[in-house]
Amino acid sequence: MKKKILLIIPGIVLVAVLYATYLYNKPHKNILDSDADISYIANTLINNFNTNKITSDDLVTKIIEVSGKVTLIEKSNKSIIVILNDGVKCELKNTNNNIKTGSHITIKGMYSGFDEMFNEISLTRCHLIK
Amino acid sequence: MKKLILFFIAFSAINLSIAQEKLTTRTGKVIFQSKTMIESFYAENNQAASILLIRKKIIAFNVLLKSFKFEKALMEDHFNEKYVNSDKYPAAKFKGVFTNEIDFKTPNIYKDIVINGNMTFHGVTKPLTVIADIRVNDDNTISFLSNFKLNLEEYNIEIPSLVKDKIAQDVAVSIETNYKKL
């Protein structure tokens, strides 16, 4: 009996340690491989947001796919910010891509809030779909 | 013809000076870090929004907390859910004024600019003074750099007692933004 307990306790500790290690090293959500929770045309998303048909609470922690027209591009060393239809801000990793102002694109990313400074719906960790 | 060119140059100069009162960026970099003997964390946000008003000498930042990236996904979740409660308080905001005379046309480095303002973080607004460097670069950009500390307790951020000794009360914040002149 004592032997059994002596075996069980290290077993539990081992499982706990493994689980903790797993949690600690849990990878970031892979947005590219996950299905989008919601898809929108940029203008519809902006209008629905402005008229409170959609609120921040509806979008929080959701993966959103948006298509629209590129109205502004801002580049930095680390990332590219692309604005769709003057109202959706998407942050893409700074990879070489051919996004140009005026082109129509579809982007998938994680909703990160509403930027009150420029009145833009903000998406982070975005990927260019097409 | 010469007159026409001169007129055109003068006209665009006027246009520029009007357009340049407000400089903006959406790619500001904000780093949060805390180091103690036992646990340290580092988070980077590369999509801070900022406005710099040259004549009014106002600078403002709007940083969405969900855009901070941590090395570990678990830390990112904890940061958002347990510490800053970003579902409820999605943004950290700072707006401040400075009094120094800065010539935004000529390349130069202005060190130790005192900026007095208000910081809103975790739903709490407090006066905050930060020291910054403003650089007028020769490639038609203006850089803003600042390092300061935020005391978590002052913004009602509770650190679970279990890890209280492990996490520093003060979080070091560093901001780096680059504004393009037109």
- Find the CATH topology of chain B: Lipocalin
Q: Into which percent range does the helicity of residues of chain A fall?
A: 25-40%
Shape of chain A: elongated
Strand proportion of chain A, as a percent range, falls in: 35-45%
Question: What Rg of chain B is obtained from the alpha carbons, in whole angstroms?
Answer: 20 Å
The CATH first-level class of chain B comes to Mainly Beta
As laid out across the biggest beta sheet of chain A, the strand order is 2-3-4-6-5
How many structural domains are formed by the residues of chain B? 1
Largest interface between protein chains, with number of residues from each side: A-B, 32 and 27 residues
Structure in a nutshell:
The complex is a heterodimer of chains A (130) and B (182). By secondary structure, chain A is of the alpha/beta class. Helix content of chain A is 28%, strand content 38%.
Write a concise keyword list for the protein shown above.
heterodimer, A: 130 residues, alpha/beta, OB fold (Dihydrolipoamide Acetyltransferase, E2P), five-stranded mixed beta barrel, 28% helix, elongated, B: 182 residues, alpha+beta, Lipocalin, eight-stranded antiparallel barrel, 2 helices, 9 strands
